[in-house]
Write a structure and sequence with these properties.
Blueprint lengths: L7 E2 L2 E6 L9 E7 L3 E2 L3 H8 L11 E11 L2 E10 L2 E16 L5 E12 L21 E11 L3
Length: 153
């Protein structure tokens, strides 16, 4: 708990559908492969895949479905996150970085999405104290997604 540990899900896919150029009211769905967690430390990754955390064998996918809403000059993504078969509502802040043409003429849009969850709300109750009596693993998990979309025909 004295330092943040960053990780990435290496296997994921998602889809965004929008009738509006500004993405207001876009529907969003994404799925991450729980076993693809990578914190750049094999032992920790194995621990995170175990039944003490993600339980990737029993719950191989982490899913989210939601709707993007424009709120004045910013956006919010509201939806449901399913982790370890537990479904919880989640609101994340979204920065829309803009839409531009790519080098091959394709239309691309960029977003930065941030939020947080409490792991215990999803049944992840692992607890271990260090010698000073402080928790080794915090309850809050920060979420950060850098997303680039490519318009499909």
């Amino acid at each position: 708990m004295i330092a943040n540990v960053s990780g990435t899900f290496r296997l994921f896919n998602g889809e965004v559908e929008s009738e509006n150029d500004d993405f207001n009211d876009a529907t969003i769905a994404f799925e991450m492969d729980a076993a693809s967690i990578d914190t750049n430390m094999a032992e920790r990754d194995g621990h995170l895949r175990s039944d003490l955390f993600l339980d990737a064998e029993k719950y191989p996918k982490i899913n989210f479905e939601g709707i993007l809403h424009k709120k004045d000059s910013h956006y919010e993504l509201n939806g449901d996150l399913i982790l370890r078969a537990v479904k919880k509502s989640l609101t994340m802040a979204v920065d829309y970085m803009g839409t531009e043409k790519g080098r091959f003429g394709e239309t691309r849009a960029g977003f930065e999405v941030t939020g947080k969850i409490n792991r215990k709300n999803f049944g992840v109750s692992f607890s271990l104290l260090n010698e000073a009596g402080r928790a080794v693993v915090g309850e809050e998990v920060k979420l950060h997604f850098d997303i680039e979309l490519i318009r499909q025909a």
